[in-house]
Amino acid sequence: MGIDLPLLWAIIIGFGLMMYVIMDGFDLGIGILFPFVPDRDDRDTMVNTVAPVWDGNETWLVLGGAALLAAFPLAYSVILSALYLPLVLMLAGLIWRGVAFEFRFKADDAHKPFWDKAFAWGSYIAAFFQGVALGAFINGFKVENDTIQLVYRRRPPGRLRTAWCHLARDEDRGDSAESHARARTTDHHRSAGGDRRC
To answer: Could you read off the pLDDT of 111-151 as tens digits, one per residue?
Structure first.
C-alpha cells in the first residue's frame, strides 16, 4: 500500500493553517482589544505576553502557502489569482502590525499612542481581509478560458435557501392577495425554467 501524497500534503496544509488561526489569532485578538484597554501598563502587559512568539506565529501561514505551492501548484495559481486583492491587503495589515509592534518598544511616551493605534489598525485590517478571503473561498471561483471570476451569492445556498424564501415571503404578508398570487405564479415559472431562486 503506497503513500497517498495528495492526502498527506492536504493534511500538512490544513495543519499549518489551523496552527496559524490558533496561534496568530491570539496576537490579532490582542491588537483588536487594544483600543478598549485605556491603561498603558495593561497594554504593555498584553504586548509582552506575545512578544517572544508573535513573529514565529506567522510562520505557520508561510508553511501553508509554501506547501500549497509545492503540492498543488494549479490550486495555488487559481486561489492566489482570485484572492489577490484581499491577500495583498491582509499582508499589508500584517506588515503594518509588525512595524508598529517593533517601534512601539522603542518609541518615547509622546509617540507611543501613535504606534498603539497603528498596532490596533494593523490587526483590524489583517483580520478583516482574512475574513474576506475566507468568505470568497467558501463561495467558490468560476474559471472559464483561463479567466477567474469570484462567485457572489446574494442568497444562502443549499437548504438555507428554503428558510430564506420563507422569511422573504413573511415580509410581504401585508401585500394584497393579488400580489401574492402573482408572486406564486412567478415562482412556479422560475422553478419550471430551472431557476432555483425564490
So the answer is: 889 999 999 999 999 999 999 999 988 888 777 766 666 56
**Domain chopping of the chain, boundaries:** 5-150, 160-192
Residue 137 CB contacts under 8 Å (≥ 6 apart), including other chains: 79, 83
Q: In the predicted model, is pLDDT for residue 106 greater than 70?
A: yes
Cell of 35: 483600543
Task: Enumerate residues 6+ apart whose C-beta is below 8 A from 181.
Answer: none
The Cβ of residue 167 has, within 10 Å, a number of other Cβ atoms equal to: 10
Helix axes of 84-106 and 112-139: crossing angle, nearest 10 degrees: 160
- Cβ burial, residue 160 (10 Å; 0-12/13-18/19+): exposed
**Tens digit of each residue's pLDDT (9 = 90 or more) over 55-87:** 788 889 899 999 999 999 988 988 888 888 999
Terminus-to-terminus CA distance in the chain, angstroms?
Answer: 49
CA atoms lying within 13 Å on the CB side of residue 58: 17
| Nearest by Cα to 31 from 53, 46, 52, 51 | 46
pLDDT at 93: 94
pLDDT of residue 90: 94
- What are the grid coordinates assigned to 153, written together? 451569492
DSSP notation for 7-67: HHHHHHHHHHHHHHHHHHHHHHHHHHHGGG---HHHHHHHHHHHTTTHHHHTHHHHHHHHH
Percentage of residues in the chain having pLDDT higher than 90: 34
